[in-house]
Write a structure and sequence with these properties.
This protein is mostly helical. The chain has two domains: about 40 residues; about 80 residues. The longest helix has about 30 residues. It is rod-shaped, with a radius of gyration of 21 Å. The mean pLDDT is about 80. Bound molecules: zinc ion.
């Protein structure tokens, strides 16, 4: 890759990230305005983005748990577990706070998926048993 095309890639990357970089949140430790992309608070060094947010993954797992009968319980359990971890991490100021709603929605979907498909499986087993097989 030539120097020019690399530079252009870097510039277009910076452009797509601009909006996110400009989104500010207040530092959980000192209330200083910090970019949501910053790894630590420039004022006090408190970790802001120290751990990558898994909120989107939690939401995807939650949706999958509702859509996939075979793996609903698996994805539901993953969304449930990762969702708990994500929300706790956000509350402790260790994860990107903007993912909180996504993580909570994903966790709720995961709980619904887990309970629903467990119920379906249970009824299926009961139906099989009562039909004499
Ligand atoms: Zn700070």
């Amino acid at each position: 890759m030539s120097y020019t095309s690399r530079t252009q890639t870097a510039i277009s990357d910076a452009r797509t990230d601009d909006a996110t970089y400009l989104t500010l949140q207040s530092c959980p430790a000192c209330v200083w305005p910090v970019s949501v992309k910053a790894p630590t608070c420039p004022q006090c060094g408190h970790p802001i983005n120290a751990y990558k947010s898994s909120a989107t993954m939690v939401l995807v797992f939650g949706v999958l748990s509702l859509l996939l009968p075979m793996y609903g319980v698996v994805f539901g359990g993953l969304a449930w577990g990762f969702g708990n971890r994500e929300v706790r991490g956000i509350d402790a100021g260790l994860r990107v706070a903007s993912g909180r709603t996504k993580a909570r929605v994903g966790r709720v979907l995961g709980v619904i998926g887990t309970v629903f498909w467990s119920g379906v499986f249970f009824l299926f087993v009961v139906a099989m048993a009562s039909s004499g097989y």
